[in-house]
């Protein structure tokens, strides 16, 4: 049997309002609509499906005050995180948000109407009080505090919701369980006791050992319940993590564990967040909840110290344990004991025992460099997923961006480099040379400063997308302006390595060897604003390589570029 929901009744608003779906849908079309951001959408989904039971809407001022001050709703139920809908003055005015008004809540991603809010009240929160009470300080190095101070608008709207449509998801649908669905799933499996494990990180052997120990200690099954809504900025994306969890699931004894995804927007609120997480898992039918070291910790504060003590979350949950209705299973950090080839909680390890660990930073380094990740730390299939997500330099795309006068040789170098890279294989090679780009991408543009800048920014956009997709990109426009080249570098470097090659063949040489007579036309005034004739060329201040076709031949220049790419690990062979 699944655990009783928080407050006694699961507030599955979708089920409740289904009989009125047609009527609510029609009404939602004619009401003013508030378009919701990603954070609000996460909250909305869990209000509507009962994950936040006993909430049936966004918190009114009374509930908000109770939660902020005492972790309690007006009806006396425990609740530790304010669930609020923040709006600004323009929205209030334009949508007519006032007590009694009905407002449609709309999905920003696809314009679908999701729910109708009946406004109960509008109130201005004291954000400093909220930060201090909920997150423990007003230090905005804390992501929850930062969101409150810089993103959340100044007025909160409280009110109950009626559900219309589920949020559309397109990923891992088979693993997205609402509380109602998960409860039915547990019942189907015949699970009596379920210990839920919250995570926002990839799981390795230590996590598997911890959850199996928890299951053993409580004679329970395990629910791996990772957050796939919003987690800490900089976390590994949920696509990769879910592939990791799926790989790990097969490492549990048969039918011991299940995996379900939670569309929660975390606040990284440590102790308060742990209490909230426990309530959410109770609503999803779990009977037990694991709270480990530094649960939902936001990292370091402005003084370089952790925002919360490592076991503060456990202490807060313990304080409310009797009335919480879901049992906390406490764990200390799991440490590897090489001499026994097993993991043990830190507090159970006898003094003097030899231990081993790989920190998060060390793991990231090993993924970056391809260094071995030992089997005692993780499973090969998990490592494989992470390696796919962290390609080695030789598997990544890059851009070689050449700049120089017309006829400086950059097109010839580009073609020779293309051939050389094609011969080596390993990745597709894409060419963005001046003439083709001007024809295919920028045919309406001329040669004013503005048009040239736009041309370079288009090249940068395409190069960045191709680099992201793993191609070797060779771009070779004149690109006479430093600023445009700097912006191109900035954009492309988000996708992969970028090399600026200054093809510094002197203008006189470019002109002298111009068989097509283009410079002659420019000198004669037939082409206006020609680079080097009557338009400037700004020399790159920080090129990665300078070459010159007057002094070198194409072959030796290509060789220099190849050496540059090689020294960055981009051409390593397996
Ligand atoms: N006013 C002016 N200034 C410079 N270049 C001119 C101009 N008008 C036309 N062309 C021909 O356009 C080609 C260079 O375009 P780019 O896209 O490389 O220029 S830029 O980077 O946007 O400045 C290059 O073409 P190709 O000679 O076929 O390479 C130039 O000859």
UniProtKB/TrEMBL annotation:
One of its GO terms (cellular component) is cytoplasm. The lineage of its organism: Eukaryota, Fungi, Dikarya, Ascomycota, Pezizomycotina. Signal peptide: none annotated. Homohexamer. Dimer of trimers. Its main location: cytoplasm. Pathway: Sulfur metabolism; hydrogen sulfide biosynthesis; sulfite from sulfate: step 1/3. It comes from Drechmeria coniospora. The record marks 204, 207 as: Transition state stabilizer. The active site is at 199, 200, 201. This is Sulfate adenylyltransferase. It is an enzyme of class 2 (transferase). The adenylyl-sulfate kinase (APS kinase) is non-functional. It is involved in allosteric regulation by PAPS. PAPS binding induces a large rotational rearrangement of domains lowering the substrate affinity of the enzyme.
